[in-house]
UniProtKB/TrEMBL annotation:
GO terms for molecular function: DNA-binding transcription factor activity; sequence-specific DNA binding. SMART domains: HTH_ARAC (SM00342), REC (SM00448). Transmembrane segments: none annotated. This is Response regulator transcription factor.
Length: 536
């Protein structure tokens, strides 16, 4: 409800105004009255009105002097001058003071109602913008860590848009990225007999514990660093190195940090990790090169060619094959069931493999194991269990049959097709259950704060994926659907005539009444105060 203060030294004018203003129709109330500008200033401080209607000529302090002081005090409300002096000088001064309107006495009820309706509409727009900006700020505060995390992952894997590189520093301090060099440590969480039969949930708990250990050590030993979780059992650390740092000393320290991390993980989690180091890069856009070098260094420790065979694992200086970037791109395509995109990514990587003269079968089989693990984690994030799609499959028996890049390509194509088609086959039933749950949740909890984050925790599906399937099923976003539910309920409560507008606003989940009124009018075409008066 909008608060109006009237200031005039003419008692009859005050009484006439109080009777003439259609308070209920414009959803407003009188919060006070004053007979001069000085008293009016005190009344404004005490009542915080949204609209002040004031005369110009008054004792003690005139209306224009009072308005100047209000402007100096950053008064946020609207000001209407109602004066018996239709003087151009006064009108010009009023415009300079940014008053909403200037009316000359005597004023008709129609003129007064029209001006007040216009001013209230302006207030609604301002209030709505203010609330929307606050909501945007709140959402950005919630989203910023997620955006930062995804941006770091794109930098470390090389999947960021290089054409927009100059815009990237809105997320991070330029000094850290432009004026320091960077080195990546690759981390692989090893699968052991102890962890072989762990569920994905338990394995994720180990990953969470691993991340906590690493972050604590980095905070103590190298704060200027970023820890990034990659796909499944892989992670990486970006070490940012100051220009004045002695290079060999820096590498020695980084290796000691890696050893400390490995020792702590073994001591506290009874798990083993394997570490690899990339080369130092001066340009932040080359960080992904260091990442590939780190994981290729790690591969050198993993795959030893048979006697007499030539290794196909690239050296630290040759990162053209980029397995980490390949993993990241393929995982994203699998998550969103983009079968053709996934196959194209596979084809491009296999073509790179075929460019190598001798292809070592252990490397191809290692790739199969890695990719299968990545598929399992990626699909689990959207509610699909890979083992359930392939209940009779004996993975190791299939992997040992793969000896050439072409065999690897055909094997991946078949698996991708089966994953995509299986997900599509059970998509309707799974999606239907999720969407029905979300719809019912909106109807049961519309009076509370609800977000897609709440839904994702309830359904164990990612927020983006939930929004995607809800929009596909209903034709609108979950947020818009929730607003429609709230507006229908508000309309029904208003029609009953038992509650005040601010009570209904709270009952349908809105603490800000002007914002609720604006949303209501947008969806219903009328103000809340008009419901029931025109048969609606």
């Amino acid at each position: 409800m909008w608060k109006i203060l009237i200031i005039d030294d003419d008692f009859q004018v005050l009484e006439g105004m109080k009777k003439s203003i259609p308070w209920e129709a414009i959803d407003a109330q009188l919060v006070g009255e004053a007979s001069d500008g000085a008293e009016g200033l005190e009344m404004v401080k005490r009542t915080h009105p949204d609209i002040v209607i004031t005369d110009i000529y008054m004792p003690v302090m005139n209306g224009l002097e009072m308005i100047e002081k209000l402007r100096e005090d950053q008064f946020p409300g609207e000001l209407i001058i109602l004066s018996g002096y239709a003087d151009f000088q006064f009108a010009r001064q009023a415009l300079r003071l940014q008053v909403s309107d200037y009316l000359s006495k005597p004023v008709t009820i129609e003129e007064l109602s029209s001006v007040l309706s216009k001013v209230i509409k302006e207030l609604e727009i301002k209030e709505m913008k203010k609330v929307e900006q606050e909501e945007i700020r709140n959402k950005l505060m919630m989203v910023e860590p997620f955006v930062q995390k995804e941006w770091l992952k794109s930098v470390i894997t090389g999947t960021f848009d290089k054409s927009k590189a100059s815009q990237s520093f809105q997320l991070s301090e330029q000094t850290q990225w432009l004026y320091r060099s960077h080195l990546v440590m690759g981390i692989e969480l090893m699968s052991t007999v102890r962890t072989a039969n762990l569920s994905l949930i338990d394995w994720n708990l180990f990953r969470f514990a691993l991340a906590n250990i690493i972050r604590e050590i980095l905070a103590e030993d190298w704060p200027e660093s970023d820890f990034v979780e990659l796909h499944s059992h892989h992670a990486a650390i970006m070490f940012h190195i100051l220009p004045a740092t002695e290079r060999e000393e820096a590498k020695k320290t980084i290796r000691s940090i890696g050893k400390r991390i490995a020792d702590c993980v073994l001591t506290y989690l009874q798990l083993s990790i394997r570490l690899g180091l990339g080369q130092e890069k001066r340009d932040w856009q080359e960080i992904s090169d260091s990442t590939e070098e780190a994981f290729l260094d790690l591969l050198q420790q993993t795959i030893i060619p048979a006697q007499g065979e030539q290794s196909v694992i690239p050296s630290g200086n040759d990162v053209s094959m980029r397995p980490i970037k390949f993993y990241q791109q393929l995982a994203e395509a699998i998550v969103y069931a983009k079968e053709e995109t996934a196959k194209q990514i596979v084809d491009a990587y296999i073509q790179q493999l075929q460019s190598v003269q001798t292809v070592n079968p252990p490397y191809l089989q290692y790739l199969c194991t890695e990719l299968w693990t990545i598929f399992a984690y990626s699909l689990y994030s959207v509610g699909t269990v890979l083992d359930e799609l392939f209940p009779d499959m004996v993975l190791q028996q299939e992997i040992v049959q793969i000896k050439t890049p072409e065999q690897l390509k055909q094997w991946l194509h078949r698996k991708i097709h089966l994953i995509a088609s299986s997900r599509h086959w059970n998509e309707n039933s799974k999606h239907k259950e999720a969407v029905e749950f979300m719809i019912q949740y909106a109807h049961d909890h519309y009076a509370q704060e609800i977000s897609l984050e709440d839904m994702s925790k309830q359904l164990y599906l990612s927020r983006n994926y939930l929004n995607q399937i809800f929009k596909k099923a209903t034709g609108e976003t979950f947020t818009n659907y929730l607003i429609r539910v709230r507006m229908k309920k508000a309309h029904a409560l208003l029609a009953e005539g038992k509650y005040l507008i601010y009570e209904i606003s709270e009952k349908v989940g809105y603490k800000n009444v002007p914002y609720f009124s604006s949303i209501f009018k947008k969806y219903n075409g009328i103000n809340p105060s008009e419901v029931g008066k025109s048969g609606t």
